[in-house]
User: Which sequence fits this backbone?
C-alpha cells in the first residue's frame, strides 16, 4: 500500500483524502495542528482544526478564513480516511492529527509536550503504525525539571525584585508561554501587566472560557512608578528594546527550554533564564514515541538527523524529513524567538 | 562548597560588572578559609590546575552512565558547546549529598594524578552520583580545567581592592606572575610591605587603544613621541638580584624559549624592561612565522638560535635598581632606558627608535612606511605620561596600518562554544584557483550575533555534507576578510598563510564568481 502521508513541497500531504497537514504553501484543505505561525499560515481555502483553536486562528489569520472546528476525539471521514484530533499539550487548542485508512494509522504530532500545563490539556498517547514527531529538544542534555519548581523560581525572583522596588520583565511568546506563566504567577505578590500583543491574545482565550488572570496592558505614556515592583509579560521582540526603557529599574528574564544551555543564555544577555518549555524534553520524546507503538517514525524539525539516527539504533525505522516547521518560539535561529 | 556555589550562581545571574564586583568582594569578606579564596582568584583569572583525568575518559564514562552511545554524546557536546556543562546535563539527575570545600575538591582531583584508570573512574562516578546538577557542573569545570564564566580579571581585581581596601593597581600588580594557591599563602600574596615581593613578579602591562581620527587631530604634537609598533611578542624582561626572568603578556615564563637572554648583563644593573621579542636578522625584523618556530619548539637548538636569532626591542623601563619608576614621566624613563642600553656591551636588547616628526603629515608618512620596515604601524606616547596599569586611553595610542582585505567564499561552518553555543560561528573560507575553491583561512570573529543567526539558518538549510561538527555548505556566501599579513607556508594546502584573519563584512552584494583568486593573495607576497 502506498504511504498514507507523503512529504511534498507544500507540506505533509494525504493523497487519499486530498488534505495537507500544516502546509506552508497555499492549498485547498489544510488540517492545522496548532495556531503558531510556522504551522498555521494564511492563504488556504479551508481550515480544519480543534474547536479550541478556531478563535485564535481567526484572531491571527483574519476572521474571514473558512475554518471548521472539531472536538478532541471527534472524527470526520474524507474519502474513506478517518481524521481525528487528539491532545498534544503544546498550547491551547493544539492537537496531534490521526489519520486512518484501511487499517493503516498515521499520527502527525505537530509540536507536543507531555507535562500537563493546566491550560493545554494532557497529551494523549495515540496508537499508530507511523508517527511523525518533532525533535526541537531531541538531545539527551534537555531534561526538564517539574514545572511547579520553575514557577516557584519565577515567583521567588519576582518577589525579591519587588522587595527592592524593581520591575520584573519576563519574555514569553504571546501564544502559549505567556498564558502559562500568567496562569501560574502568584498574584498575591503584586500586580501583573502584559504587553498589548499578549493581552489581546489573552482576551480571545478568556472569551473561550480559559482561566487567565487579568493582566492589564501597558499604556503609552504611563509613569514608571506605576510599574514599580510589578511583573510585566512581554514578547521576546520587546526585550532589550526601547519599549522596556520606560520601566526604570528593571530586570529581564527569558523563559525557554534553551535557557538550559548557559552559552545561549549568555548570548541573550538575559540576567535570568528560566528553563520551561512547551516542547517535550528528551525523556518525553522517547516515551511518547514508545507509547505510540509505531514502528516507523519521521522526524520533522529540531535536531532531526541526530534524533532519527538515535531512533534507528533503538530499532525504529526512522527518517529525518525537511519541513518548514521551526518549533516556533523555541527555535534559536528564528527571528521571532527568544 | 556552598559559599562558592552561591557565588557562582549569583555571578551567572547578572550582567552588571558592578554587581559582579560586589558579589565577589562580599565573598572575599565572608569566606574565612584562605585556601578557598586563593583558588577562587586563581580560577577566575584563568590559572588552571593541571588536568588529572583525560577528557576522552570523562566523555566515555558519562555516555556509559547515561546509557547513550558515544556519538550521541559528541553531537550533543557540539551543540551545548561546553564539555563540563554537557556532562552535567546528560548525566542522570541526582541529589547533592556531598559538601566538600572548594580546595578539598581540587585537592582530591589533583590527588588522582598517579591513580589507576579504575580508581579515577570510581572517584568521578561517586561524585557524579552524589551531586546535584549545579554542583556537578562545578565539579566538571574543576576536573576539566578552565572556569570562564564572564568574570574578567579586572572584576576580580576591583573586588579584592574593595575587600582588602587597597588600591586596584597594587592588587593588579600582586596578581601578576606565576603563583599558584598550592605555593603561596594569602598573606604572602597580599603582603604590601616594601621588599616583600616575589623576586620574579612582573608588572601589569600598559596597553593602548586604537586611535580615532578625532583623537588624532586633537593631539598637541609637541607633547608626543612616536615609535614603530613591532609585530612580535610583547614581553617583560626582569633582572633582580642577578636573576633573570622573561614574561610574556599572557604571564608565562618564556626564558627557556629564548635562552639568548638568560645571561643578560647591563653594566651590573637590576632592571625591568618592557619590550617586544622579535626575530631579527641582518639589522631588520624577520616575518612573524620565523618567531613562531621559536615558540613552537620544545628545545631551542643552537642551529635554531643561529637561523632565527631574536632580540628585544626595548619600549620602556619600569624598574631600575629595584626601584619602581612607573610613576615618573615617559621622557625621563626613556632617558634612563637609553643610558642603560647605550652603556652596556650586550647586543640582545636594542632601543625602540623614536621617529622625528614636525606635523601630522610626517606622521602619516612614517605610518605608510610601516610594512616596508616590518612594523604594524605606529605607537604614539605622551612625553609626560606615566606607565599605567592595563588598557588606558589618553597618554598612549596605537595607530596601526590598515589591514589587507580580500573577498572569499564560505565553504565550511562549525558550531561555536560558550556564548556562541548552537550557532554556526567558526568558518572556513576559500579563494578561486581555476575552477576550484581553495581553502586558505579560518575566521571566528567580526560578525554580529544577528548575522551569525542568519548564517546559522543558511547553514542548516544548505548543508551538503557533515563531518562531525563541521558542515560543508552550498557555495553562495561571500565575505570580505581582513588580515595583517601573508607568508609562504608549506603546512597549508593553499601554499600561503594569512595572519590574524577576521571577517570584515558580509558581501551580500557579491556573488561567488566575484570572489578573489588565490593568485590575488599570492600577489601580496611580492
Assistant:
Amino acid at each position: 500500500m502506498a504511504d498514507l502521508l507523503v512529504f511534498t513541497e507544500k507540506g505533509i500531504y494525504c493523497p487519499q483524502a486530498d488534505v495537507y497537514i500544516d502546509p506552508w504553501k497555499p492549498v485547498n484543505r489544510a488540517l492545522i495542528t496548532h495556531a503558531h505561525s510556522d504551522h498555521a499560515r494564511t492563504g488556504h481555502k479551508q481550515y480544519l482544526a480543534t474547536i479550541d483553536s478556531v478563535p485564535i486562528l481567526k484572531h491571527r489569520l483574519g476572521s474571514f478564513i473558512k475554518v471548521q472546528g472539531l472536538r478532541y476525539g471527534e472524527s470526520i471521514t474524507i474519502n474513506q480516511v478517518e481524521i481525528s484530533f487528539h491532545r498534544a499539550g503544546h498550547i491551547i487548542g493544539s492537537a496531534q492529527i490521526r489519520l486512518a485508512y484501511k487499517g493503516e494509522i498515521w499520527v502527525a504530532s505537530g509540536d507536543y509536550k507531555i507535562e500537563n500545563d493546566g491550560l493545554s490539556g494532557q497529551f494523549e498517547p495515540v496508537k499508530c503504525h507511523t508517527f511523525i514527531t518533532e525533535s526541537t529538544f531531541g538531545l539527551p542534555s534537555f531534561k526538564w525539571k517539574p514545572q511547579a519548581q520553575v514557577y516557584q523560581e519565577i515567583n521567588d525572583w519576582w518577589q525579591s525584585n519587588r522587595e527592592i522596588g524593581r520591575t520584573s520583565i519576563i519574555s514569553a511568546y504571546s501564544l502559549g508561554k505567556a498564558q502559562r506563566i500568567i496562569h501560574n504567577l502568584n498574584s498575591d505578590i503584586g500586580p501583573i501587566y502584559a504587553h498589548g500583543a499578549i493581552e489581546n491574545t489573552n482576551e480571545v482565550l478568556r472569551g473561550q472560557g480559559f482561566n487567565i488572570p487579568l493582566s492589564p496592558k501597558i499604556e503609552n505614556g504611563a509613569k514608571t512608578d506605576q510599574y514599580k515592583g510589578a511583573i510585566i509579560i512581554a514578547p521576546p521582540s520587546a526585550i532589550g528594546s526601547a519599549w522596556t526603557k520606560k520601566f526604570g529599574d528593571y530586570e529581564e528574564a527569558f523563559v525557554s527550554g534553551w535557557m538550559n544551555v548557559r552559552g545561549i543564555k549568555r548570548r541573550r544577555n538575559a540576567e535570568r533564564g528560566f528553563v520551561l518549555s512547551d516542547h517535550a524534553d528528551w525523556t518525553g520524546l522517547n516515551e511518547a514515541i514508545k507509547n505510540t507503538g509505531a514502528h516507523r517514525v519521521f522526524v520533522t524539525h529540531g535536531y532531526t538527523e541526530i534524533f532519527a539516527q538515535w531512533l534507528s539504533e533503538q530499532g525504529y525505522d526512522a527518517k529525518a524529513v525537511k519541513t518548514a516547521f521551526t518549533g516556533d518560539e523555541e527555535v534559536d535561529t528564528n527571528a521571532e524567538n527568544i | 562548597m556552598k559559599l562558592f556555589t552561591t557565588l557562582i550562581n549569583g555571578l551567572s545571574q547578572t550582567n552588571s560588572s558592578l554587581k559582579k564586583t560586589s558579589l565577589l568582594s562580599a565573598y572575599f569578606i565572608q569566606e574565612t578559609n584562605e585556601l578557598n579564596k586563593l583558588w577562587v582568584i586563581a580560577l577566575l583569572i584563568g590559572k588552571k590546575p593541571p588536568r588529572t583525568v583525560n577528557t576522552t575518559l570523562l566523555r566515555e564514562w558519562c555516555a556509559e552512565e547515561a546509557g547513550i552511545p558515544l556519538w550521541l554524546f559528541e553531537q550533543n557536546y557540539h551543540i551545548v558547546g561546553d564539555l563540563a556543562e554537557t556532562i552535567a546535563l546528560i548525566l542522570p539527575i541526582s541529589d547533592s549529598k556531598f559538601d566538600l570545600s572548594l580546595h578539598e575538591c581540587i585537592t582530591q582531583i589533583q590527588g588522582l594524578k598517579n591513580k589507576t584508570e579504575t580508581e579515577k573512574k570510581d572517584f568521578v562516578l561517586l561524585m557524579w552520583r552524589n551531586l546535584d546538577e549545579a554542583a556537578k557542573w562545578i565539579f566538571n569545570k574543576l576536573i576539566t580545567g578552565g572556569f570562564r564564566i564572564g568574570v574578567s580579571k579586572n572584576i576580580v581585581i576591583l573586588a579584592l581592592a574593595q575587600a582588602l581596601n587597597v588600591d586596584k593597581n597594587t592588587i593588579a600588580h600582586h596578581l601578576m606572575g606565576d603563583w599558584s594557591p598550592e605555593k603561596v599563602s594569602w598573606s604572602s600574596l597580599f603582603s604590601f610591605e616594601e621588599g616583600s615581593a616575589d623576586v620574579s613578579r612582573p608588572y601589569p602591562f600598559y596597553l593602548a587603544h586604537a586611535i580615532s581620527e578625532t583623537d588624532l587631530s586633537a593631539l598637541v604634537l609637541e607633547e608626543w613621541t612616536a615609535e614603530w609598533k613591532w609585530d612580535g611578542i610583547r614581553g617583560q624582561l626582569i633582572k633582580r638580584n642577578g636573576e633573570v626572568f622573561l614574561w610574556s603578556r599572557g604571564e608565562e615564563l618564556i626564558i627557556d624559549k629564548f635562552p639568548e637572554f638568560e645571561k643578560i648583563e647591563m653594566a651590573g644593573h637590576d632592571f625591568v624592561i618592557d619590550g617586544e621579542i622579535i626575530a631579527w636578522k641582518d639589522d631588520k625584523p624577520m616575518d612573524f612565522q620565523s618567531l613562531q618556530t621559536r615558540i613552537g619548539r620544545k628545545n631551542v637548538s643552537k642551529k635554531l638560535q643561529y637561523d632565527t636569532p631574536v632580540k628585544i626591542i626595548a619600549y620602556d623601563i619600569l624598574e631600575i635598581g629595584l626601584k619602581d619608576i612607573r610613576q615618573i614621566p615617559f621622557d625621563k624613563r626613556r632617558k634612563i632606558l637609553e643610558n642603560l642600553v647605550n652603556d652596556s656591551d650586550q647586543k640582545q636588547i636594542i632601543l625602540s627608535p623614536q621617529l622625528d616628526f614636525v606635523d601630522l603629515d610626517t606622521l602619516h608618512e612614517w605610518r605608510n612606511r610601516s610594512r616596508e620596515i616590518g612594523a604594524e604601524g605606529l605607537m604614539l606616547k605622551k612625553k609626560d605620561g606615566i606607565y599605567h596599569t592595563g588598557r588606558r586611553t589618553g597618554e598612549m595610542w596605537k595607530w596601526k596600518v590598515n589591514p589587507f582585505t580580500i573577498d572569499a567564499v564560505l565553504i565550511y561552518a562549525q558550531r561555536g562554544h560558550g556564548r556562541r553555543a548552537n550557532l554556526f560561528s567558526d568558518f572556513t573560507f576559500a579563494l578561486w584557483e581555476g575552477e576550484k575553491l581553495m581553502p586558505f583561512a579560518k575566521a571566528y570573529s567580526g560578525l554580529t550575533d544577528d548575522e551569525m543567526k542568519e548564517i546559522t539558518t543558511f547553514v542548516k538549510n544548505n548543508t551538503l555534507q557533515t563531518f562531525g561538527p563541521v558542515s560543508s555548505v552550498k557555495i553562495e556566501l561571500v565575505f570580505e576578510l581582513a588580515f595583517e599579513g601573508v607568508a609562504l607556508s608549506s603546512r597549508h594546502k593553499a601554499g600561503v598563510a594569512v595572519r590574524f584573519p577576521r571577517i570584515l563584512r558580509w558581501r551580500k552584494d557579491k556573488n561567488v564568481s566575484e570572489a578573489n583568486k588565490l593568485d590575488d593573495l599570492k600577489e601580496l607576497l611580492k
Q: What stands out?
A: Residues 329-338 of chain A have pLDDT under 50 and may be disordered. The first strand of chain A starts at residue 6 and ends at 7. The helical segments of chain A are 54-61, 147-163, 177-184, 196-207, 262-267, 282-292, 304-313. Chain A touches chain B at residues 139-143, 258, 260-264, 266-267, 269, 271-272, 303, 305-306, 309-310, 313, 332-333, 335 (CB under 8 Å).
